Amino acid sequence: MSECVNRIAGYLEDLTDKRLKEKNSEQLPVVGELPLIKLIADVKKGNFVIDAHTGAGKTTLGLTLYHKAKHKEGELSAYDVIYINLREISEKDKEFKQFNQEKILKILFDHESEEHKKVAECIYATTKLQLKPQSQKTPLLYEYIKEYYQNIIKDPNKKRLIVVIDEFERAYKWDVIPQTLTEWFSSTRKFYDETYAVPLKLVILLPKILSLKKNIEETLQTANEAAFVFTEFRELKIDEGILNSYLNNLINKENIKISSLQKKPGFRRLIKTLSKLQSGRYIFPTLWKAISTSICQTVNGQISGNIKDFLSNLDKIDLKDVNPDAFLNELVIGITEGKPFRTYSKSEAIEIWDTGFHSLCKELKQEKEGIKPLKIGYQDFIHILNNNTFVWMTLEKNLKITTFKKIAYKISEVIGAPVNLLNIIVLAPEFTRGASVKNMKIDKIDENKRKHTIQLMFKYRILGAEELLSIATLGGLEGFDQIIASQVIKELVDDINDLIKKG
After folding, report:
1. Mean pLDDT in the chain?
2. Burial class (CB in 10 A: 0-12, 13-18, 19+), 365
3. What are residue 161's DSSP bridge partners?
4. Which residues have a Cβ under 8 Å from the Cβ of 499 and sit 6 or more positions away?
5. Starting at the edge strand that comes first in sequence, how are the strands of the sheet with 439-445 ordered?
6. How confident is residue 446, by pLDDT bands cut at 50, 70 and 90?
7. 395 and 353 Cβ atoms separated by less than 8 Å
8. How far apart are CA 385 and CA 368, in angstroms?
9. SS3 193
10. Cα–Cα distances in Å, from 214 out to 51, 152, 297, 428?
């Protein structure tokens, strides 16, 4: 049975991952239909900033744009696409780690240049360019756009261009990104203002770090309001609609007859659960295994002929339903359903959250080293950063004013010296409802029986399922990618530190 499952799951994986990575794949990769692709193609803007957590599909989006432009049956027949991953390029060319805008633009637009040839294997391009602007003025990108537009005017068959840049933040320091993007986005806007044409669109794929996105937005808006309006900021999310469109593409484009499975209640519940996790590297292997298990159990592990032909004849049988609990840890399902302690052992779940929160806190800068976070009851966890700054993670489904008071008084008990103001960073799951307190005053009686008033200021960071899943993974939850979890935690820590800086 396991051999049957592995063979079919491997085949399904190849239809997506293998085809995505192949520059000359003869067939389109099987992916879910991403609304962002239509947005990029149809909206008359020159700049798009798409963010998502590590593993949530940014690279898949970039490669999908490439393949949809390359294949005649793709929806981007009016465009050529160039996709580059700056992390891969910087690993290939060590000198590239020193930011050089001129070098990046040569790699993108002059495919005869030594800079391009050095890293050509890392670049996905549906067209070969040899742009050499006569002027090397700043902003240099503007000169490349102008040169490219001249080619379109000369050749009516020349397509418009989408340039996709992935993992900017993994190659360079963050202070480079807002400045560079502001210059580039201003160039696309300047060209549009002069010609009313958008021959080139920039798509920048970035991690889901609120402080980075906000910095880019503020820098751009301050420097060039018109360019800011010419820029779309969107989040990439793998929702239920995308997963169902993926299944429909398997059925309609690859002739894999699994429509009977789509109607089963257990499988539909699995899809609903997976759509809330946001990690493509977790979602799709689970989905492939579930589909394969259903098929193999239905046919008792017996595959006749080659897999492609076998899967095209599944409409003759009624596929067995699947139980989501067989593919997902109970705690994972609980996270998506707003039940973060849903597991066979509540004490084990509490330990996972306690350990995971402790691991998160180790990543935060603090003055008081070696202090273990406090656990209040089993749903609230507090970390002391310094005498007036605390991080509070709650897993309660309904927050009440009494909860805030309980936390406030517990924090006041552990303060080493009297303070007038406490800053509390609240980490609350998106399923949490109830009170949202911004400030509160409490009275504390000191050892001399004198009353001391403390004001508490609360700031919030909402935790999505992928962030909760990452915290739980660091706490001992098995089955999720540790590397992705660690990277998501780092992105979350950046947001928390940004909230702390603002006091």
Report:
1. 88
2. exposed
3. 80, 200
4. 425, 459, 461
5. 374-376, 380-386, 389-394, 421-429, 451-463, 439-445
6. low
7. yes
8. 6
9. helix
10. 12, 35, 50, 21
421-429 and 433-434 strand pairing? unpaired
Tell me the per-residue pLDDT of 447-462, one tens digit each, with 9 for 90 and over.
666 777 888 889 999 9
> What is the rounded end-to-end Cα distance, in angstroms, of the chain?
58
Gap between the Cα atoms of 366 and 389, Å rounded: 9
For the domain 35-235, what is the CATH code?
A: 3.40.50.300
Alpha-carbon gap, residue 72 to 68, rounded angstroms: 8
| DSSP code of residue 364 | S
Enumerate the domain spans of the chain: 35-235, 240-328, 346-501
Please give the Cα distance from 105 to 144 (Å, whole number).
8
Work out whether strand 398-399 and strand 231-235 pair parallel, antiparallel, or are unpaired: unpaired
| Residue 393 neighbours by CB under 8 Å, 6+ apart | 357, 360, 380, 381, 382, 383, 427, 428, 463, 471
pLDDT digits (tens, 9 = 90+) for 307-334: 998 898 888 889 999 999 899 888 888 9
Q: Which residue has the tokens 């060039």?
A: 224
Phi-psi region of 370 (alpha: psi -120 to 50; beta: other; left: phi over 0): left
What pTM was computed for the model? 0.88
Give 105-109's long-range contacts (Cβ < 8 A, gap of 24+).
Answer: 105/140, 105/141, 105/144, 108/82, 108/84, 108/144, 108/163, 109/144, 109/147, 109/148
Give me the residues paired with residue 130 across strands: 110
370 pLDDT higher than 60: no
Which one-letter amino acid corresponds to residue 151?
N
| pLDDT tens-place string over residues 97-137 | 667 888 889 999 999 998 899 999 999 999 999 988 877 76
pLDDT higher than threshold 90 for residue 231: yes
Sign of CA dihedral 293, 296, 299, 300: negative
Q: Residue 370 in 3-state DSSP? A: coil
Contact yes or no for 405/441 (Cβ under 8 A): no
